[in-house]
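chain below, 295 aa
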Amino acid sequence: MRVLLVSMLPADLWRVEPLLAEHVRLFAKEVIPMKYSEKDFCAQIVDYQPDVLIMAGSEQTLTPLAATFLRGSDIKKVWWMTSIEAASHADQRLLQAFSAIFVPQVEDAEALSRLGTKAGVLPFGADPARFYQRHVDERHASGLLLVGQSTPARRQCLSAIRQGPLEGGRILAMGKGWEGCPGVETADSGVPSELYYNGAAAAINWEEDTATMLEMAACGTPQFIWLPDAASSVMAPGVDMIPFAKEEELPRLIHHYWHNPDKRRAVATAALERSRYEYSYVQISLKLLKAAYQA
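prediction:
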């Protein structure tokens, strides 16, 4: 099996292409990675004659010529999108030419469904070269790490948390608007996020992207995650993350898990295992290849 891996990834996901190429090689006789080029795309497919085309990313729009070419091709085709902007402007016949389409967020899949295209949810896994368990300096350590921007409701709930289980503990914030919040230190934006993840006894994660969830999971960080319905597409509420829907729930939840450290460690361990196995690039590569042939 010859696989042509075409990257349309943004700069911040540049590591995804070599990770995919490395692990697809476990299942394919030959893997040919290349960057998408409007000028050469169709000619390269003709020259290489792949059995499977994996499109990774969607930061560029396919030209009408490329779209026509793909619609007429019998090659097995899978598209793992970074966003649905390109897809929302594409001819639906182009999208239907792919054996399978994957998107990183459940809301992206819902948006494509409204456009008449079925898509599976497949988040971008954590880069194992960056996100893994390690010891960090005290300056990166915290009792509680806040991930996401500040809001009045979030600031208010922290007052109850500081007076309860985290009294005297260090709270670090990664996000906008936390400056001047009593008892909260803002993290240095120049420090790699994985150092703060590893230094946190637990984190409140208000970010909605699945990548952040899996990156923290890979560092073994117990997470209190907002919007459990969205998060449950990739993680299991109460098993490998602690869900909450309103800030008012947090003081009680944090109090419970601080007085039950075994439960907190169990959540972190389950999340770590999910990140290492289910969302490893071995499993992601296998899922993309299976989808190509099962359509």
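The chain is about 40% helix and 15% strand. The chain has a mean pLDDT of 89.
thats it, cya
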